[in-house]
Amino acid sequence: MQYTVKRDGSHIRAAISGRLTFSDAAQFPKFLDDAIQNGVSCEIDLGELTFIDSTGMSLFVHIYDTAQASGLKVTVRNAKNPVADTLRRASFDTLFEFK
Fold first, then answer.
1. Mean pLDDT of 72-93
2. Helical spans, DSSP H, in 1-99
3. Residue 9's pLDDT band (boundaries 50, 70, 90)?
4. How many domains does the chain have?
5. What's the whole-model pTM score?
6. HSE (side-chain half, CA atoms, 13 Å) at 1
7. Average pLDDT value for residue range 79-96
8. In 10 A of CB 62, how many CB atoms?
9. pLDDT of residue 93
10. Which among 78, 68, 70, 69 has a CA at the least distance from the CA of 14?
11. pLDDT average, residue stretch 7-26
12. Distance in Å from the first CA to the final CA of the chain
C-alpha cells in the first residue's frame, strides 16, 4: 500500500494505491493520523488500488469509526473492479458515499 495525503484547509484528499493487504496493517494507524484526523471532509481516491483483502477492508472500518467519532464526512472515489466489487459486497457503500 502506498498513499498520499493533501490538505486544503479542513478538506483532506487522500489516495491509496497498490495492494491493501495484511502486510500493510502496521501502516493503518499512520494513515488514519495523516488522512482522517482534524478535518471536516475527506475524499479517498482508490483509482490506483488494485487489490484489497479482508485485513485491508478493516482499514475502512477504522476510517468509518474515526469519521463517526469526529463528524468527518468521507467520500470514496474511483474504486474499480475488483476493489469496488469487494467493498460493495461488504456493504461499505452504506457507510461511505461512493463516487
1. 94
2. 28-35, 54-70, 83-89
3. confident
4. 1
5. 0.91
6. 25
7. 94
8. 14
9. 92
10. 78
11. 92
12. 21
Span 21-80, pLDDT tens digits? 999 999 988 888 888 877 789 999 999 999 999 999 999 999 999 899 988 899 999 999
C-alpha grid cell for residue 59? 482499514
Domain that holds residue 28: 2-98
Q: What is the CATH number of the domain that holds 66?
A: 3.30.750.24
Q: Which residues contact 74 (CB under 8 A, 6 or more apart)?
A: 36, 41, 42, 43, 44, 63, 64, 67, 96, 97
What is the phi-psi region of residue 18: left when phi exceeds 0, alpha when psi lies from -120 to 50, beta otherwise?
left
Total residue count of the chain as it appears in this document: 99
Quote the cell numbers at residue 38. 482534524
Q: CA-CA distance, 23 to 27, in Å (whole number)?
A: 9
Name residue, grid cell 502506498: 2
